[in-house]
Amino acid sequence: MSRTAVMEGSFAVAEAVKACRPEVIAAYPISPQTHIIEELSKYVADNELSSKYVRADSEFSAASIVYGSSGTGARSYTASSSQGLLLMTEVLYAMAGTRLPVVLTGVNRTVSAPITIQPDHQDTMALRDTGVIQIYVENIQEAYATHIQAFKLAEDHDILLPVMVCMDGWILTHTFEPVKIEEQELVDKFLPPFVPKYRLDPKNPLTYGSYGDDEVPEFRYMMHFAMEKAKTKIQLIAEEYKEIFGDYFGGLTEAYKCEDAEIILVAMGSVIGTIKETIDQLRSEGKKVGVLKVRTYRPFPAEEIFEIVKNAKIVAVIDKSISVGQGGQLATDIKAALINKKTPPLVYSCIAGMGGREVNINTVKYIINKSENSLITNQVPDIDYIEIKRQYLE
Amino acid sequence: MVTTEKLNLLAPGHRACPGCGAAIALRQILRVVGRETIVVSATGCVETFTSPYGQSAWEVPWMHSLFENSAAVASGVEAALEAKGEKANVVIISGDGGTFDIGMGAMSGMFERKHNITYICYDNEAYMNTGVQRSSATPYAATTTTSPAGKNSYGKMEFKKDVPAIALAHDVEYVATTSIAYPQDLMNKVKKAIGIKGPKYIQIHTPCCIGWGFDSSQTIAMGKLAAETGLVPLFEVEKGKQMVVRKIKNTKPIQEYLNKQNRFRHLAKEDKEKIMEKLQEICNDNVKRFGISE
Predict the structure, then answer these.
(1) What is the reported pLDDT for B272?
(2) Domains of chain A by range and CATH?
(3) Which of B115, B172, B105, B40 is nearest to A57 (CA)?
């Protein structure tokens, strides 16, 4: 029987990872990822989990350790945040290029400078081009389910790419919600032991990490092609999860009240919950508004997004990060998804919630209000910094 | 009957330079560790010349990932083997740049966590793969492309980092230095290391004809001279036992070693006598400290 318990987000992730029976875990502590790896080490100490747990000397080494263990055919897991994810960057490129199906939790926190432990998406956005699949979750239950699905996705022989489950630090890792924890037997049924396609094995000596003279374009092409395949696979895996566990958490996107919406907000992660609440309020006032949650940022579901937003008049994109000198990364990708279409909606790019600044119902209402004004004037600002405190700029 | 002498797990046709000391080291290492081995290498000469895509020279499973992480990758390999209840020798073969400099942190972590891994550093005393830049393994006064001798410089102005001592400070199970010029010594030490459980460190002096500037027929001779002058002491320390040092009958003056290599040629000038003397002092100190004289 499954059980439902009120628990902290980090513990729910640890429960999910435990249920997946990783053979090797390597980690290095950084806030706000710590509770996940502390809980996992407790399971190992209490013999509730038989993983080989390696306490790494840095995030760089943690990523390298799971690189080695995954290449030796072991189901492997790590987690990090912020600076730690940046320190892993070089390894993550190599890991994706070597097609190693590691699962990691990217606990979202901004990056220095200035140093702070507050959440935003700047860290995982910096890993956008690594070849690591990125799935952003809205709530703790979704974080739980997505981790279990992530192993199945990563280890699929058609995919073989690292998968990172991105969850907002503090907002999701350190808050409590009721979480349905699935029965181990069913998780085992959903996720059988990892069968590597290739591995380091003296019985069949293979070379990993060759020097490439002329093969780089083909390697990149195959990674991109695997990402494309992942679009279908992510949905199939979510369906299978639903069949076994009865709940659906998956898909590339989730459209909420978008069918007849004139204004559609687009965002990722925990802010979706706040937006849904706002949409409900505004719908009761008769406003035609909806929200599109982008779950998988890489692969980017451009076609699916277009199908959802094509009849809207304006799309307001909330980025909790910025590509300095260009703007919001999600907004840039949404614009790219619409550019070759006939009569695409306007795109309004909002930068909000950076460095943990609160995005509440009033913030969302402000964005919707500005979207309505844009429809009247038929003009949208190139980029809108929501609730910038002018006093700091002087 | 299969004789181990004939076991060659480095296929011919690799891309090492003629007279490459590292390639000689590889063959000697692989002959001893045998097929039940997984090798991890850092980026460097060995990685480049053995692993062109589709033309790998490795006849044991081999993994390369990055420059600075071979010790961490190998830690993961070892952890996976342990998790699966499988056995194989896990051996790192990385250069001095990947060991002394950029990979030092990962190596320290691997030692401290007591992984069952033999870390072998082939020490050619500079970044040879990228064109002979100075590393912290480069000997005092050697000229390299980033520590060139000039009006204001006599080459590398700092001493070689003592990595075996750093390994010993981690309380590892076994530390040894050896040289390709003494194949039996090298193979005995590797054999001993893989038979001991826990972290081990072996540093192999591997002369590089291109980087040091000597004829490719002289690789072994150069390795011999390095040992015979006392500049490169050959020793081993097994945990809990006394250090064993390879004795030299009549140590040779350092000049004999320096004169044969372009990287020390600038020292022949009159005003560099003091530097020469300093190098001789390093040798004398080694002879005394390690008790090299027979």
Answers:
(1) 86
(2) 3-245 (3.40.50.970), 253-392 (3.40.50.920)
(3) B105
